[in-house]
Every structure is written in structure tokens, then in C-alpha cells.
Amino acid sequence: MATPQPRFDTGYGAQVQRRVPDTLPRTLDEVGGWYRRTDQLVMDWLLGYQESAGVTGDLLEMGAYLGKSAILIGRHRRPGERFVVCDLFGEEPPTAENRRTAQFYTKNLTRAAFEFNYAAFHSESPEVLQAPTSELPEHVKPGTCRFVHVDACHLYNVVREDVQIARSVLIDDGIVVFDDIRSAHTPGVPAAVWPEVATGGLRLICLTPNKLYATWGDAKPIQDAMLKWLRAQPASKSEVQQVTGERLIRVSDWTTPPPCPVPPNGPPPARSLRVTPRAKRIVVDLLPPILTRTIKRARAAAQNRRTAS
Which spans does this entry mark as compositional bias, Pro residues (predicted)? Predict the structure, then answer.
């Protein structure tokens, strides 16, 4: 019996990996989770922009699931920087409301599955905090992070607390990313985030179909550079809008998705020979009569030669 393979996400949909697979994922698409190709490209560009601009600081992810976005973020950790990942990894959430919302997404989720996937692409693990995000202030100092990805519990009260944790740990021009900002099943996320835009000093960078990218610093130089990058992408789709008097870049999905920014961790598997139905019909139905006729003709030719001699 063939070994079952883990289900995976093509970059636009979502598949749920329920166990540690039997083989290491070779590409990011083979890691279970929800992570659009558009966000892979935008997040990779923003992290690269920080590095080219000389921005230094640690990396933080609140809510990692099976490691899909962590794998990409981890590629941008530089010497001397920490990468902290905080997730319950299947442990029981602290409140009954949390448990109701998490029963589908975290069922059978384990830290081992996350570490297995991450190790397929990285030789060094991140610092893992298996706990609610409310414990992060004890482990991450204020003003130390350049990039924070918020994708943990989607309940309003929790997201509101996560917003303030992100604000505390970020450096002045650090970037924060909020997942599920536009999803109908996560109304607590926009309810907690948009007031921070309206009155809390959070400045918009860009909005994708799933995530909001912003900063409590100066968004203008980031946006100027991003617009140049997007306009150089022939298949990208974007527009500029004004929200609460601030410029916002709205990024749609690429018409033709570019390759994943995380390269495969090994060569593609060897292709097995596939016998098509037509080839099988030739072998099964036609080849025996052809061989029979060829053998008869050869025997007849040999007999004619013997007779002539």
C-alpha cells in the first residue's frame, strides 16, 4: 500500500495537515495552512526592504499553526536577531470561548508537526513559546522587534491585547501584520484593529485579500518603495486609496502567481514512467499479432533460402 502523503496548499486555498507527515515537505506549498501567494510575496518583500534599509531588530510571530509563514519569516533572521514563535500548539486554550473557536483549527495540532515542517527548511529552530500570547511580555522586551505577525486567537478581546503587545515590542519603524482582517468568520480582528488606525496612530502600508500591513512609524518611505516594486511586477494588481486621511496600497492577487519566494529544499522527485492507455492498448492488443506476423515472415524467408540453395 502506498504511503499517504500530507495534503497541501497551492498558495490560495487552505488544507489542514492533521499529523506529522512521513516525509519532509520539499516546498512551502506542501506545508499545511492558510498563506496566499500574494502575502508570501508582500511579506518577503517587506522583510527584505527592512534589511536593505538597515533596519535591525527581532522577529515575532503570534500564532504559527504548522509553520508556513514562520518558514518564510525565518529566512530573514540575521545574525544576532531572535525569532520568537508563540502558539498553543494544540494545548487547551485558557477560556471556554477560545476553546469553541479553536476546536476545528487546532484539533490534533502539535508542536512536533510545526518543528518537523520548519526543520525541512532551516537548520536552526526559532525560539518557541508554547503559551497564550498574553505571556509574551515576559519573554520579549519592549522596543526590540522590527517585524511582528499577528495570527493567533481571533476573538476581539484577545486581538485587542495582541495589538497592544505588538505596539509595545516593535521598534519605532517596525512593521506589524494582522491576518484575517477581511474574513467574515473573524469579525473580532477588524473590530480590534481598525480603531487603532482611526485613533491609535497605526499607519497603513498595504492591504491584501487576507492581511493588513502597517506601522506605528513612518509608512511613506515603505509605501514609496513598495509602489515601485509593484509597478515593476507585470502581473501584479494594486491601487492607492485614502483611509482616515492616510494613503493605503490595496494589493490584489497577481493575475499569474509568481513562484514562491521560499525555494525548494531539494531537487524535485524523480518522475516515474507512466504508461498511457493508448500505449497499454498497443502492447496488449496490437503487439502480439505484429510479433506473430514478423516471426512467420522470418520463418518463410529462411525456408525460401534453404529451398533455393
Answer: 256-270
Q: How many domains does one find in the chain?
A: 2
Secondary structure of 119-164 in HEC code, one letter for each residue:
HCCCCCCCEEECCCHHHHHHCCCCCCEEEEEECCCCCHHHHHHHHH
pLDDT by residue (tens digit) across 238-250?
A: 999 999 999 999 9
Note down the domain range covering 297: 273-309
Model confidence pLDDT, tens digit, residues 23-41: 889 999 999 998 999 999 9
d(CA 264, CA 267): 7
At 284, the pLDDT band (50, 70, 90 cuts) reads low
Per the DSSP assignment, residues forming a β-bridge with 176 are: 148, 214
Query: How many Å apart are CA 170 and CA 167, to the nearest integer?
Result: 6
Joined grid coordinates for residue 170:
516593535
- Residues 210-258: tens digit of each pLDDT: 999 999 999 999 999 999 999 999 899 999 999 999 999 999 999 998 9
> What pTM was computed for the model?
0.79
Q: Which of 252, 282, 297 is the last residue of a domain?
A: 252
Assess whether 139 and 201 both reside in one domain.
yes
Q: What is the distance between the alpha carbons of residues 205 and 62, in angstroms, rounded to a whole number?
A: 20
Q: Sheet with 237-243: list strands edge to edge.
A: 127-129, 83-86, 58-62, 145-150, 170-178, 212-215, 203-207, 246-252, 237-243
Give a yes or no: residue 267 inside a domain.
Answer: no
67 and 114 both lie in a single domain: yes
